[in-house]
Amino acid sequence: MAFSEPMKRWDVVVVGEIYADHVFSGFQRWPAAGEEVHAEHYVRELGGGAVNTACALARLQHRVRLIGLIGEADRSWFETRMQGFGLSADGLRSDPLGTGVTMSVSTAEDRSFYTYLGANRRLAELLDDETIRAELIAARHVHFAMPLAADMAKRLFPLLRKAGCTTSLDVGFSPDWLTDPVNQWTCRAVDYFFPNQTEAQWLSGGESAEAFRNWASFMDIRHGVIKLGAAGAAAVVNGELLHVPPPRVDAVDMTGAGDAFDAGYIDGVLNGESTQDCLRRACICGALCTTRIGALEGLPDSFSLRSIYEQTYGT
Ligand SMILES: Nc1ncnc2c1ncn2[C@@H]1O[C@H](COP(=O)(O)OP(=O)(O)OP(=O)(O)O)[C@@H](O)[C@H]1O
Ligand SMILES: [Mg+2]
């Protein structure tokens, strides 16, 4: 950082949809309409990519602000859970629509989701709020974990660039967003773009990482990074794919692996590391996330990130 650059209040501001996840598992079968079936297990956890990435970055000791909307009734739950990661809930606004809810229901073979958007409906309005804008420009890096609308991106990105913030985007599984040409501007404007393999396919029309490379090169994407599940990840650098394998782990639950990956990559960016190093940190965070049930329990701290890094890739 140049000596004259003013100290930013936050390392990262993460913006996106926030959910209360209700995870029911161990059903023997799917019920017919009007029937009741009983779950073997139930857990309630904070959810949504924004929460997962913010918690992961806070655990890596960055100064993180999470911005989004919840119902007031859930505030103390969010405060307590986020505190465990060294993250304050003060960036979360309360809204009468209540916290968004995702219900995940699974048998041994299948999983289905039921979602209520709740307060997340007001996210676009929130981003037009002057106080929130001030929080965003007070960050070194702003990560959007949401299908950011094109008009909002066009308003925000020039402001952020002018304030010296780098940016990243994970739109999640949003076929409508990914296939709408209006969003190509956003893909080009963001500094780091993080689709997974399925999302990349919606963009490029092809299944392979090479198809993503061709699309990203043609579109002039600044840093296109594709997440490849157990095969790791690849970044497009000067028209070529730079591939990094993940550490070998006993994966038990993939929930949130992509969000943890984003955090690891941003950790590298904030530390001024090379693309290869950012990919390695990201792959470690994604892989470790899969070793525990849920998105939050497996997230590494800086110490375990460093030790797995050395074991996997050498020093
Ligand atoms: N089985 C695995 N073994 C090792 N690493 C894994 C495994 N699964 C995922 N990862 C790591 O986590 C990263 C993200 O996983 P994935 O490609 O599934 O993202 P995603 O589909 O966006 O996930 P999410 O469901 O959270 O949105 C991968 O790029 C990889 O580095
Ligand atoms: Mg994802």
UniProtKB/TrEMBL annotation:
Top-level taxon of origin: Bacteria
Transmembrane segments: none
InterPro entries linked: PfkB_dom (IPR011611), Ribokinase-like (IPR029056)
Protein name stated in the entry: Ribokinase
Annotated signal sequence range: none
PANTHER family membership: RIBOKINASE, SUGAR KINASE
Transferase recorded as keyword: yes
Record-linked Pfam families: PfkB
Keyword Nucleotide-binding carried by entry: no
Key words of the record: Kinase, Transferase
Residue ranges occupied by any Carbohydrate kinase PfkB domain in the UniProt entry: 11-300
